[in-house]
Fold this protein.
Amino acid sequence: MKNVPPSLVQRGHPDHTKLSAVAEEILQRAGGLDALKIEIPKMLRGCIDDVIQTPKTGRRSYEELEKTEKTYIGTRVEIMLRALLSLPRGRLDTVVAGYDADIKHTMGPNWMIPSEAVNHICILVAADEVQAKCYLGLVVAKPEYLTAGGNRDAKKSLSKVGFSHILWLLCGEPYPKNFWRTLSPKTATEIFSGASGNDRVVALFRAVQETAISRDVVDAVARQKDFTRRIRADSGRGARDRLADEGILLLCGTMKPQRDLIARLGLRLNSRGDYISYRVTSKEEKAAARKAGFKV
């Protein structure tokens, strides 16, 4: 989403009182703005990846989805946003601060507003896969904020003027990139070609080093119920020991000694539950790794 104009929704704006009340309740239900900045990006990443299903389908991007699957992402976002904020159902999609509201999602530059949502509040959600940025805003879908023409379903979009009447809660907020989109097709194929869960996990952390990898990605690669067993040393058979034999550390942020080692090596995780691999080379790094319990 490019060239988003500054919001005109300030004190004195005709929609300010209504939108501010809705924004306040959303933030309260989320646990504050900082929590919203964490949970909305995470929710969007999950909704999109659950439909792409790279490990099962071989697809790596949103663009490869069928039209019906793209539509379903919007439905999932609506459901998951209500669940995340514990919002009730209403005459439209939900009720916030006593107002009926429609939840609209897009992976593109605009939203399609149905006729039943006109003159009602719309909760606008957007995800930009290319830029890895997301948006969450509120607008009263007044006719003067919408385009003159509509599609076959009589849905209209926000006009250029309409965009300036959005009250933004998140605007261009970074969200996790589609992990598989960052890899070449050759690398992804090599990772998934492993015969066992251990083989695939080892291939993953051998190919992608010094980059935080989420538990969801590891789970998808292992394709087994107890995917964490693939991570453990497992008497020399697990991924951790096999990688250590190659001089590669497989680290997790949930363990304090490893978390301290991650910081010492200058690595960064997106969340404490992430994993990251690193090839040790110097005597100092190897000594620090052994102190943390690695056999290198």
About this structure: The first strand starts at residue 94 and ends at 96. The chain has a mean pLDDT of 91. The chain is about 40% helix and 15% strand. The domain at 183-291 is CATH 1.10.10.10 (Arc Repressor Mutant, subunit A).
